[in-house]
UniProtKB/TrEMBL annotation:
InterPro entries, A to Z: BTB/POZ_dom, NPH3/RPT2-like, NPH3_dom, SKP1/BTB/POZ_sf
Domain BTB: 46-114
Pathway: Protein modification; protein ubiquitination
Gene3D superfamilies linked to this entry: Potassium Channel Kv1.1, Chain A
Record's protein name: BTB domain-containing protein
PANTHER family reported for this sequence: OS12G0117600 PROTEIN
Length: 347
């Protein structure tokens, strides 16, 4: 199953995506926000201030020091045991990720989702929340959620990869980008007969898939088209889209589908400058090169990149050039795929 609801792996239940820490030292029922400041709901006075940009967190040393190796080092290496403030402007994920990490330190339940897990995983690494300090610390738990929930879900893999755009180089170094790209590629190359629709509530022409473990022999059931994944991957930033397509190529996707997916992406991001052929994809074939030849692609692929300043869409010219160069680099060479690039881009 590719959706994250009700996941349970190896005796670990991640169905509700809620994290808690068993030890926290300061009794609290949660955090309170007042303007740009966060406070712990407790009668114990705050003795430690964490500043991240314009947001301040009025906290306590013990819950943080007991779980964060970085906090320990900063305080003890400063040789100032009375140090009561630290600035973490370079923390990946920003105030949002630190808020969740701090709540975890206090034993407050934290809801893990596809939109916050990558930032929290990177923040946990930055804060050095390892097993050396506490069993079941934040690095371990966020890794478990990524492995058991996110990577088993098509939708969550897409959302997490999208959220990694603001987490460079942390998400790359922690292999989150690579793992999500591989997960997406594997699912995109799966036999469409094993897919059923799971609507996302978005208006695209196609909806996201869900793995179907149950055999459905209904004669009237609609076949899943081989291009079902185009719209979902087209929301990705160009470098992440290239990573996904590269992984898909390695797994043996038909060249015609790869070319069509690339054209779909180009039409989405630079619609005023891209025109494609009248090709159609044979819906009766799957995505593997070994199961479909070039005859399934009806017509040629023509990427005509030309225009004037009046044709420019919202994407800046320098970004357009980067997108075009990246797309051309991943399109598989085929005799019926043509590229005409005008002097507008300096080619």
């Amino acid at each position: 199953m590719w959706e994250s609801e009700n996941e349970s792996v190896g005796g670990r239940d991640y169905s509700n995506g809620v994290l808690t820490s068993s030890k926290h030292g300061v009794k609290t029922e949660g955090f309170e926000q007042r303007g740009q400041s966060w406070y712990v709901a407790t009668d114990v006075p705050s003795d430690f201030l964490v500043q991240i940009g314009d947001v301040s967190f009025h906290l306590h040393k013990y819950p943080l020091l007991s779980r964060s190796g970085k906090m320990n080092r900063v305080i003890y290496e400063s040789r100032d045991l009375d140090m009561n403030k630290i600035v973490l402007d370079d923390l990946p994920g920003g105030p949002e990720a630190f808020e969740l990490a701090a709540k975890f330190c206090y034993g407050v339940a934290v809801d893990l989702t596809a939109t916050n897990i990558s930032g929290l995983r990177c923040a946990a690494e930055y804060l050095e929340m390892t097993e050396d300090l506490e069993e079941g610390n934040l690095i371990f738990k966020t890794e478990a959620f990524l492995s058991y929930v996110v990577l088993s879900s098509w939708r969550d893999s897409i959302l997490v990869l999208k959220s990694c755009e603001k987490l460079s180089p942390w998400a790359e170094n922690l292999q989150i980008v690579r793992r999500c790209s591989e997960s997406i590629a594997w699912k995109a190359c799966a036999n469409p007969k094993g897919i059923r629709w799971a609507y996302t509530g978005k208006p695209p022409k196609v909806s996201s898939p869900k793995w179907n473990d149950m055999k459905d022999s209904s004669p009237g059931r609609n076949q899943v088209p081989p291009d079902w994944w185009f719209e979902d991957v087209s929301i990705l930033r160009i470098d992440h889209f290239v990573r996904v397509i590269t992984a898909i190529k390695v797994k043996g996707m038909r060249f015609e589908l790869i070319g069509a997916a690339t054209m779909h992406y180009a039409a989405k991001w630079i619609p005023g400058l891209i025109r494609d052929g009248t090709g159609a994809i044979d819906e009766g074939s799957n995505g593997s090169n070994s199961n479909g030849g070039s005859n399934s692609w009806k017509g040629g692929l023509h990427m005509i990149v030309a225009g004037t300043k009046e044709d420019l869409p919202t994407v800046q010219a320098k970004d357009q050039r980067m997108i075009i160069e990246s797309l051309i680099s991943i399109i598989p060479p085929q005799k019926d795929m043509c590229f005409s690039v005008a002097s507008f881009f300096g080619y």
